[in-house]
TrEMBL record:
<dbReference type="InterPro" id="IPR052917">
    <property type="entry name" value="Stress-Dev_Protein"/>
</dbReference>
<protein>
    <submittedName>
        <fullName>General stress protein</fullName>
    </submittedName>
</protein>
<feature type="domain" description="General stress protein FMN-binding split barrel">
    <location>
        <begin position="11"/>
        <end position="158"/>
    </location>
</feature>
<dbReference type="InterPro" id="IPR038725">
    <property type="entry name" value="YdaG_split_barrel_FMN-bd"/>
</dbReference>
<dbReference type="InterPro" id="IPR012349">
    <property type="entry name" value="Split_barrel_FMN-bd"/>
</dbReference>
<dbReference type="Pfam" id="PF16242">
    <property type="entry name" value="Pyrid_ox_like"/>
</dbReference>
Length: 169
């Protein structure tokens, strides 16, 4: 694997690309106790500033834990493209009508009886503080061919198809 640390706009572009490609992450709270509490969450959006947005219930354990300690860890995996993302950051909870209207997705109707008007609807914004990614330069198919070729010939792969690094937003 080669290392390519990205900063500013390129870091945000990579964060947006990888998080929106995977869409689902393991959202971990209560980081000071082991095991950490984690649950799958569907990403609504990664905005142009690198914030990640989620819809959540005000009555969820995740919301209670964020109110106590807003440090969170997110793990995104897109196995289909061999893309991975680890994000440590701070979470903030919104209940205002404007934010709910802006971030609402009709898929969230499955969790809220009254839709976006349900009083339990909250929006969570995660602001990344430390982000690390793993990606392939040529895509999963080419990388897989490289590994198959190495296995068939008895040679090792040089891992040059992969790239990893920090995303400094």
């Amino acid at each position: 694997m080669s290392v390519e640390n990205l900063t500013h706009r390129k870091a945000i572009e990579k964060l947006k690309e990888l998080s929106e490609s995977a869409r689902i992450c393991m959202f971990c709270t209560n980081l000071t106790e082991l095991p950490m509490n984690s649950r799958p969450m569907s990403l609504q959006e990664c905005d142009q500033e690198g914030n990640l947005w989620f819809i959540s219930s005000a009555e969820s354990n995740k919301n209670f834990e964020i109110k106590e300690e807003n440090k969170v860890q997110l793990y995104f995996m897109n196995n289909g493209n061999a893309e991975y993302l680890s994000i440590y950051g701070k979470a903030f909870i919104y209940k205002d009508r404007h934010t709910i209207e802006e971030k609402w997705s009709s898929l969230a109707n499955a969790w809220f009886e009254e839709g976006k008007d349900d009083p339990k609807v909250t929006i969570i914004r995660v602001t990344p503080e430390e982000t690390y990614y793993w990606d392939t330069k040529a895509g999963k198919f080419i990388t897989m061919l490289s590994f198959i070729g190495a296995a068939l010939t008895g040679k090792t792969t040089d891992n040059s198809d992969g790239v990893e690094g920090n995303l400094n937003i």
